[in-house]
Amino acid sequence: MNLATIQHGAEPLSTQYLTFLLGEERFAVGILHVKEIIEYAGTATVPMMPDCVRGVINLRGAVVPVIDLSARFGRGVAAIGKRTSIIIAEIDDGEGKQVLGMMVDAVNEVVEIEPADIEAAPPFGARIRADFIAGIAKCQGRFVILLALERVLSTGEVVELSRHAVPLATASSRAGP
Amino acid sequence: MNLDQALQTFITESRELLADMEHALLNIDLSQDLGDQGEAINAIFRAAHTIKGSAGLFSLDHMVAFTHVVESLLDAVRDGRAVIDDDMVALLLACCDHLSSMTDGLAAGQYEADPDTAPEGERLLQQLRRRMGAGDDPAQSLAEQSLTVRPEPDVERMGQEASNGDSDYWHISLRFGAGVLQNGMDPIAFLRYLARLGRIAGMATVADALPTADEMDAELCYLGFEIAFESTADRAAILGVFEFVQDDCEIRLVAPRGKVSEYVELIRALPENPARLGEMLVQCGSVTAAELAAALAQQSQQSLHPEVQGEAGAHQTQEAPQRLGSILVAAGQVAPVVVEAALTRQKQVVEQKAQENRSIRVDSDKLDRLIDLVGELIIAGARTSVIGQRLHNAELLEATSTVSNLVEQVRDAALELRMVKIGATFNRFQRVVHDVARELGKDIGLAVDGEDAELDKTVVEKIGDPLMHLVRNAMDHGIEPAAVRVAAGKPARGMITLNAFHESGSIVIEVSDDGGGLRKEKILAKAIERGLVDPERKLTDAEIHNLIFEAGFSTAETITNLSGRGVGMDVVKRNITALRGSVDVRSVEGQGATVTVRLPLTLAIIDGFLVQVGSSVFVIPLDTIEECIEFAAEPGQDYSNLRGQVLPFIRLRALFHIAGAPTRRESIVVLRFGKVRAGLVVDTLLGEFQTVIKPLSPIFSEVRCISGSTILGSGDVALILDVGALLQAVDGRGAAAPALPALAV
Amino acid sequence: MSDIGHLAWGGEINIYRAADLKLEVLQALRAAPVLEIDLAGVTELDTAGLQVLMLAKRTATIEQRELRLRNHSPAVVDVVEMLNLGAFFGDAVLIHS
């Protein structure tokens, strides 16, 4: 496993974001949430969970759940690519700090985005849920969607989903009794 | 080191003492006479007495004043001047509660009487006084006692002489040895001789050592004396009086206006327990009761005195009592060293008591850390073993095998630390049953069995509330009123029984009652009315009974303030399920009901068995496995023939919707959980494996069949199966898979 | 069984008789709810004797019986006063003529 850890320096980091790709789209999350980035090396599947929960991994002795962002955004289960990575993020969802992994297609660089350059999410037109979007910014000529991580990785919501559990495999590939 | 730590110790110890008091009160057999009750009453008295003394050290006047009256009543009981009965037990229990709330107030930083609870305290005090007021024995009337200092009943003293002449007297302390009489000496004769040298101004006969009638040997001496002696004789002359008994008597002498160190010595040497600062000072004559009372009255207006020099190495309570001591010192009455000496004695008594328990307090955080480290050790050990196997190095394998053995022993020892007996939890219910029974006007007793059954401390902490609900429910709805019971031919007294035992890797807790049992028709009717059950469906008795755990279910005619407040059986079930446990009820109408709670024994480390399905590895708790067999099924069925018995099975692949085709030769793991036996069909058996349970992220809280995760020696994550949940799918249904409801896409 | 038991002690109440006296008084104490001991004839009371009386008194209290000491002789009064045990024995009549 290749580990790259973001160093948290002494300067205020509230304007730094980690950008990554999902398909063709660029997303970003605040650096303060990011603990580390690792290569994707498979996950252990947890049965009876919605598709957005890919499984769990062993992160130096801790068992960390991994969220499939593609599935979470309603685009179906992600395919594993050469640059598929897991961003280990820490959020505070009201019930304490949670550490979760996010599966993305590729991780890009850390960028600076001034608050002045951030616009509110458009009321429609974005291809993901409005409440997942913290804002949209222009960065190096392209649009980047800033994610509201607490909502994207909301434990409560995932739990709610798992109550009406969605199977991991699709119906056609289900192994019959 | 500082007031806070000392206070914390006081709070902790007071809570223990109050628990002792409560326990003794609940266990007093009111049918016995005073002689047989003696030990229990003494225990109660001692607890109150010690709290009073310690509270005095911290100048917690509200506690001292309250406890004093309680102590007085208990003293009256001890002497036979008051008789302990049901009402008094209830009153004393209420006093325990009041003291408890004062202690809690202390913990929250409140050092004085809380205006909210003070009226309650007053009310209790009035009741206490009323119980004491009626003197049962007119021939024994007691003199009025002052509130702050009250002499022991065995130590009679003359009326308080408020004179200032005390310090002009010698103070003679005599403790005659047991054999003095047999050696031909008569203490009384020596006292007469002493009286010829001066005037005995004050005399206290100390008869604390006088045992009970059976134990007393009439030829041994059990008496001691504290004497205030006015005389111009010098020390040698006074000691000379006792020349012939000096081998058979402990003599301590303090000259008039004697040196401080002598008073220190005297206090330290006095054998009577427990040391109470104020009373000791009075007893040794350094301070009169009046002076002490005045000092205590003063101190509520004074702020905390800065630390007074004391002996190095003294207990941390040293600084706290300076309040009282400093007042006395300021009033020119007692030197600080005297105060400190009395404290040292107090501390010794407390320590002695603690040592008697031969146990040690451990910060639970430290314990958790230890368990974590042991867990890591296990994983690291497993990793080393895996490497050793891969390298086919015999020496290394032997070494890792040794390490594994030791690690296993360490693991077991560490887990032992977390195990606590359930007895303490059970015994809490004595009080609950006692109080609630009174409230309900029913006669209900509690029997407890299996108190020695041990379980993990975190489980114990969390099982308390659900058990409480079950007990209250049994009392409220289960046990009938006495009249109804008698009419039904049952004893008027209803019984609730708590029982605990281990069974196949779980701990089982049963709450039984011999009440009216569950009424099947009523339950069914209610369930249908609430739409919980299809009227056409035919349910077994067991299924009907278990309907009481469904949400929104309550059949009590009147919702009492005990159980029917919306805290129903469904909440109990949810709490228990959250602990990865299960709950079940069995009942016979008219005879009673039993609720059975099943919980995992330990939450930390597991002996597991690895199985593989597809590319997923799962861990099955080893003690749920009976055996493993080759896969074989009755044609077209989901059960197997195991030596003539039907073994239903679950196909794990199907249940978990794992992609891919099964291997050619599957296996069945035969599981048993409680009374249910079923098989689990898997691809491959991988063998035994001990490992640490890693709790699953809360994100998985709704996943029923997985109870946790673990990390294998290879570094991969394996999920631990919740066998109970798995088998629940089989029980009551007959058919096996897929037992979970069809999943929506 | 009469309501009030009676004992009369006389002579020297001391260590030589203490063991016997202890048995006697305990037996008498338990034979009736009230026991009266007449002490008019006591010529000497030593520590051992005193202890027996104290034990009897305490036992009476614990067992919810009554012990009354009557007609204290001067020897008894002397000891009780010197050792300040008036309250302990709780007898109404203590003053001797």
Short key terms for the protein model shown above:
heterotrimer; A: 177 residues; mainly beta; OB fold (Dihydrolipoamide Acetyltransferase, E2P); 6-stranded mixed beta sheet; 3 helices; 12 strands; globular; disordered N terminus; disordered C terminus; B: 745 residues; alpha+beta; Four Helix Bundle (Hemerythrin (Met), subunit A); Helix Hairpins; Heat Shock Protein 90; 5-stranded mixed beta sheet; 22 helices; 21 strands; elongated
Q: What is the string of helix and strand elements of chain C?
A: EHEHEHH
H/E series of chain A, N to C? EEEEEEHEEEEEEHH
CATH fold name of chain C:
Transcription Regulator spoIIAA
- So how many helices of chain A? 3
What number of structural domains do the residues of chain C give?
1
Alpha carbon gyration radius of chain A: 16 Å
Q: How many E-type strands of chain A?
A: 12
Structural category of chain A is mainly beta
Q: Please give the count of helices of chain C.
A: 4
Strand runs of chain C, count: 3
Main sheet: strands, sense, barrel of chain C: 3 strands, parallel
Instruction: Tell me the fraction of residues in β-strands of chain A, as a range.
Output: 35-45%
The average pLDDT value of chain C, as a whole number, equals 85
Helix coverage percent of residues of chain A? under 10%
Distance between the termini of chain C: 34 Å
CATH level 1 name of chain A = Mainly Beta
Fraction of residues of chain C in helices?
A: 40-55%
CATH class of chain C, anyone?
Answer: Alpha Beta
CATH superfamily of chain C: STAS domain
